[in-house]
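cron nightly-structures :: item 1 of 1
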Amino acid sequence: MKFTRTAIEDVVVCEPTVHGDDRGYFMETFRQDKLEEFLGFQLNFCQDNESKSDFGVLRGLHYQLPPHAQTKLVRVIEGEVLDVAVDIRKGSPTFGEYVAVKLSGENKKQLFVPRGFAHAFVVLSEKAVFAYKVDSYYAPECDRGIAFNDPKIAVRWPLELEQLQLSPKDKEQPSLEETELFDYAQRLY
């Protein structure tokens, strides 16, 4: 497996080695020991999640506050999405900046999104099956979000506004300035 730091060094692209022939393929989708060695700290993923979404569905920008903040390792099994991680750690040199990576069933890339980042994706294919690991269980009292179209973050979504499908919750998320955030000085792993 190959690991590459993005423009925000705490967000990492993980690319598995795919072994294929005319019968199909095999790959290791997760190696805790290799990822921990690259990151320099231990992981404790406790839950796997999966969603299926249609073209234009945008989910996010979501995160959970401590003590139930979540690190995520996300991938697409089928279809294609633009995956986005936004640094929401007050005091961080990259606060409010984001990384966007196309993930697909074809390229098999994964994105490691640490605690202290809001996460979102938009479906670019007819349908997409999205899967991810988290290291803390869902806690509704810690669940937070940021408006997908916050001008301070200015994510360049590749679809027009009228093409996007959002949940009622995601249509009403607060701005970056109005929401509770993380403190960069606080160690999150």
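cron nightly-structures :: done
The radius of gyration is 16 Å.
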